Amino acid sequence: MTLVDAYLGALKMMESTGPRPLRQAAAFIAASPELVEEAELRAHLGAADPNDELRRALSLRLAIFDHQAEDAAWTEDTPPNTRERREVVLRLLNVEEETASLLGDLIPIANLDEPIVIADKWTPWYTEDLKRSRDFYWQHYCESLQAAPHWDSKAITALDKATDRVVERLANPTAAEAYQAKGLVVGYVQSGKTANFTGVIAKAIDAGYRLIIVLSGTTDLLRTQTQRRLDMELVGQENILRGIKPDDEAALDATDYFRDDPDWDHFVRHGVRPSDGGGSDLYRLTKKSFDYKSLELGISALDFPKRERHLPLFHPANLFAGNTRLAVVKKNSTVLKKLVADLNKITTRLEEVPTLIIDDESDQASVNTSRPKPLSIEAKKKRSAINRHIAELLKMLPRAQYVGYTATPFANVFIDPNDTEDIFPKNFLIALPPGPGYMGARDFHDLNLDIPLEERTKENSAEKAHVRIVNEDENEQDADLQRALDTFVLTGAVKLYRESLGRSTFRHHTMLYHVAMQKDAHREQRAKVKEMWDRSGYRSASCFERLRDLYDTDILPVTRGPEGGVAPSTFDELVPFIGDTVNRIGKTGHPVLVVNSDKIEGEELDFATDPHVWRVLVGGNKLARGFTVEGLTVSYYLRKSRQADTMMQMGRWFGYRAGYRDLVRLYTTQALYDEFEDICQDEEFFRDELRQYAPFGVDGSPQITPSQIPPLVAQHHPKIKPTAANKMYNARIEQRRTPMKEPSSGYPLVSDGSSLQDNTQAFLPLLSSAVAHPEVLDLDGRPVSVLSTQVTNEELVSILSQLHWFKEDSFRPDLNFLRQAKPDTIADWYVVLPQLKGQDAQVTIDGVGPLSVHRRRVINGKLQAKSQPADRSLVQPIANRPKSTRGGMLLYPMVPRDATIRGKLFPSDVVMAFTLFLPQASGATDGKLITWTTKDSSLPDYALVSV
Hints:
This protein is an alpha/beta fold. The chain contains 28 helices and 30 strands.
């Protein structure tokens, strides 16, 4: 027995009891108080690195105690994740003052981002006591994550909290009355949605759900990856082997993973048969090698025998003594038809079976696209195939809970909520925060970066660090592809250098080449990339001059930045690792691999069984949704789409890049990069809106319910819709009470001179007043020149009421709110026109001036009129003052970037763009941020509200 073993055992004891005297528990396990002196514990922790087993276990246990709900008996009603809670924890652990101080330094209180929850009222049933008393699969899942180096205590605690938010909104599986909840969980692309629904499944099984159906996308590649992940982290060795004896060679040969999976030793071990350890045995109806098949004579494998035959299956006496069935099925009509047919054959009454249906990539295939509007009874019968089978499952399983998962929710929230048989998330919508270490939009786009373009470098700009612009002309793209391949080789060499230092291990290293969807095109592209690879000279010193320049100008500057890792200070130090990299890339075949639905001998991609996938992957749809491209470091992406959800799902470069964030590169065109930035802003807008509406109102009721989500969807790019048109509908907002208003792309087209002239004329009195009041304001110690004025809310509403918009409804809900505001909530506005440096920026507009005009890019006739983050700090603090009744307004006369200006402009040349910051006193007193009205059938059908 060692000190580490003793303290690990003590922490294990606290899983079900809460914090208790730490040293005393360790001494009890060690049977030797001298072995577990706290001074020795402090010495061990002080010398240990963050991946030390005891330090990780202690970090996880403290994080769990920190965030546990207030209703746990030991918490003394202290709020989660606060200093007060930590003081209670340390007091109950009864540690010495020096130990408490060390724990505070090594394991600070986690600042966890909360999931955003929009939900109907529900009956609480998933209590802390229930969690602690039935946590077999959840605890073992946590242990499997704890053993993974990229899962730290903060990430596991965040997962615990997020999965609680989902499970608590499902129906109580033991309730006498059947209840069916439908919900949607929204994550980011490649952000850990599988980890979340694996945790939800673990907790659901512990709570009593006995049929788990996972709809895992539309490809065998994704279904297989999902099956293996669940088998490895949830199902575990005991459920896979099913008691096979170690000497039964034939049975072992027929068992998934045992013979051919290099990670078999890392599959979770429960230690006992789950039913002997307080859990439920898991029977897999699908395996890694095959999807669901008709059971026919083996139909009993899907049945649910009852211990107490006179009681229903959902009675605790039967439920907690029963086994659980798990099916991971592809969203394929034939497969789902077999599952529906077999369920209809079993002897158990289906209305008694607590069922959880997890729909991964739920906006793909699951949504009914055969439905005309308005939805009629006849139309309900005409559903697309996958949607029809899901509807059948929900109808035949009244206790089934449906939880869809997606990173692109727009198709789901546009489903008609009045269609009771469909999958609209009528009960809850949960938006997950990204986990620690996630690389998302802000790691590739300089969103709201307050640094002038000319001052941005690879050290301070996400774009310059990770994005490389490809020439729009196909005939000029060879040089860009060569640089991408060179980057792939160099980053692989840096990974091997880091391995040599013992810092990390990199099992897979991949580059994605995604230019087209068609399989025929993939063959041509593979030939092109192969030819370039073969003539790149990587097996000789002939390429060194080219690689040296790229290393010095591209790789090194980023590794020296704020997110950089260790790297050789000179190219010559890296040279020994380049040969090893090229050998590894070509070890299992040609470095360039096509990944699509074609079956080519020796060309299959399998990250699970292949110990090292170091390849360039050429593909399309098969690599574009759900499937995780392991080790992805370089992406060469040129494929276009006109739908935001389709484009976002193809962004495989988003994800977790532990140990090599600084090496990640995206090669794409400027146009595609700008489009991705727009759709990333669509996504952030959706989440920002949800965040505002998530808190319950003062009367305890939800501010909005999921059926009212669609109007919160925005479209930043005029030609990229959120999703397919036949998936979109909307309700009508009467008032929008959000604290910041920036109409942005809602202004008239730059070619609509008549509307622009009217808008400018409406603002001219305000411009005249501002020109007469120049000011110099202080912005973080820097003087900023502005023009300013003040207007009453009544005067501003009069101006805004005269404006024309690209869509009639663009600003109507916001104007309605401003119009009804009283002087004690919005009295007046401080209006600021930021002024640019240089005389060439000074103009007059219809004789009013001089003043600055601002330039913005034009996309398809629309000026992308947005405020600057730095400018916002000139007026936002005024609106944010406690009980302030004065709002702040930024006003920008704007023109296209390429507009010719010769000292004066006509009103028809200018887009009068503005941003409003509402005063703090204008907050809705009833706690509701928006109000709704029924859509007037005589008005146009607005599917979107532009930002």
